[in-house]
Amino acid sequence: MRPLAYDYFKIEDGDWSIAAPDTFNFAYDVVDRIAAEEPDKRALVWVQDKSSSMYKISAEHEREFSFGEMSRLSNQAANYLSASGIGLGDRVIVMLKRHYSYWYVMLALHKLGAVAMPSVSMLNHDDLLCRMNEARVSAVICLGEDKLCAKLASASADADRAVKIFTVGGTVHTDGVELPRVDTGMAYYPETMTRVQTDKTAPMLVYFTSGTTGMPKMVAQDGLYPLAHISTAMMWQCVRNDGLHLSVADTGWAKASWGKLYGQWLCGTAIMAYDYDIFSAVRMLDVIRRCRVTTFCAPPTIYRFFVKNEMLDDGFGDVEYATTAGEAINSEIVEQFRRKTGLLIHSGYGQTESVLLVGDFNGEPVRMGAMGKPSPLYHPIIVNENGEECADDEQGEIVIPPSEKRCEYGLCMKTAEGYDLRDNVWHGDLYRTGDIATRDADGYYWFSGRVDDMIKSSGYRVSPFEIESVLIRHEAVMECAVTGVPDPERGFVVKATVVLRDGYKPDRAMVNSLRDFVREKTADYKAPRIVEFVQALPKTFSGKIRHVEIRERDAEKK
Q1: Do 259 and 47 touch, CB atoms closer than 8 A?
Q2: pLDDT value for 256
Q3: Which of 49, 78, 299, 395 is most buried, by the most CB atoms less than 10 A from its CB?
Q4: Can you name the residues that pair with 246 across neighbouring β-strands?
Q5: pLDDT (tens digit per residue) in 156-170
Q6: In terms of domains, do 514 and 384 share one?
Q7: What does DSSP say about strands 91-95 and 115-118: parallel, antiparallel, or unpaired?
């Protein structure tokens, strides 16, 4: 059976396009169809690490699922949830980490026409209450952990409307009442179900942005969002039919939709689910090697850790292709990874609000340090402050202009009844990313930073990422973040917040060493005037550095 991606995705004259019937539903039209034609085809390989919070609860720690099993389990879960009052249009928070139940629960919600809201379990009471109220949540499906359920129960008690809590993998009582369990309750329901009629233009997913430059904002995606990820999986991650793809991401992040569900199954590859709470490079490399992962995607943080700790001698023998997204990756890390493994790290750029917009697509030569080239599905461009397209090497904002040929699938919904989308990225028909970049003469895009992160110092415009890219090459630097600090004479001065590698001292000699290192590699005015050493950088749940939090901390100190 050829991958179903080819039924929906076309390439004509270099442009990509997507087409699907009005009733398209990923769970029925992709998963159930594969299950009907190839029921034994491998869909999911799940390995649970001892650090997982569920490890002591469950007796099983490794499982493999076929598409036939995923179809049956999702039908049972859908039938159970329907009998429990969840149906078309209901908004349901899903907090299942990397447990295998995430996959059949998501499919069940899609089959019911409910709106899934994947979320990370680290959210606190106020985070949860905000999401429950803003999205008008009806239910939560979470792992059966006492602390997590207590936190959810507290938030639901303060919510504007009743929120029912379901668990998976563990029995939990709140206020003396046992919470209903999806995984045990669904066992009494049929393995088949009557198809619920859904509309491809109706919301199917809601994420909240990671909040790198402000408060998280709600993002809604419609039923065609999965098809837009064909380009992510096929043309960027280069997954192959019957391969095994590992994307390092909690299922609460939008990155999980990029690499752990939609495009991969459409392209016929199985998904590797490595279920852990505490990252161990040694154990992750062992899983990659032992399970024979063929394609790999991880945020730059993971690659930096592998490279800086010299842990690449084993593990990538079966990996054919490596990719990264989430934030820009430094060329030094890419080069060291290539020397150790023989693999290039192919960059990709997109947002919670979108799919892949710029990247190293299959067949294009990689330019070290660049973001790649624009996606032929969306044709993003770079514009200046006047909205005019920038010349080569001119800095501007990445936008997607209105176009009759452009397919809008995979970009957050402009409007959705019952959703507050006032803070979305649409300005009329113009999609604004808020990210700054330049384009070289060969069409490669080079990341500069967020609009809110750019530094104006003594009349010069300074890109934080450019300086970070230099600092990370210093032998003492594990991680760093560059921000601007208000200055009465210069407007702003450049500050570097640095995490040192073990064995290096955070003293005046190190400050001078870092400044001199930057001056040797780039213009003198870009050298940090302020250097602060810290044990760890503030990050989002998805591992992105929160420059805004560093700026806020500095403001509080004044």
Answers
A1: no
A2: 94
A3: 78
A4: 296
A5: 999 999 999 999 998
A6: no
A7: parallel
C-alpha 208/C-alpha 227 separation (Å) is: 21
Could you tell me the two tokens for 74? 């999702």
Residue 179 CB neighbour total at 10 angstroms: 19
406 DSSP β-pair partners: none
Q: Which domain holds residue 249?
A: 5-439
274 near 290, Cβ under 8 Å?
no
The domain that contains 20 carries what CATH number? 3.40.50.12780
Element holding 26 (H helix, E strand): helix 26-26
One domain, residues 174 and 240 = yes
Helix segments in 321-422, DSSP class H: 331-341
In a shared domain, residues 327 and 467: no
51 with 89, same domain? yes
Report yes or no on 447 lying in a domain: no
User: How many helices and strands (H and E) does the chain possess?
Assistant: 17, 29
Tokens of 281: 């490079």
CA dihedral 166, 103, 546, 127 (to 10 degrees): -10
User: Within the chain, which residues score under 70 in pLDDT?
Assistant: 210-215, 313, 404-408, 422-423, 452-453, 456, 458-461, 489, 541-543, 558
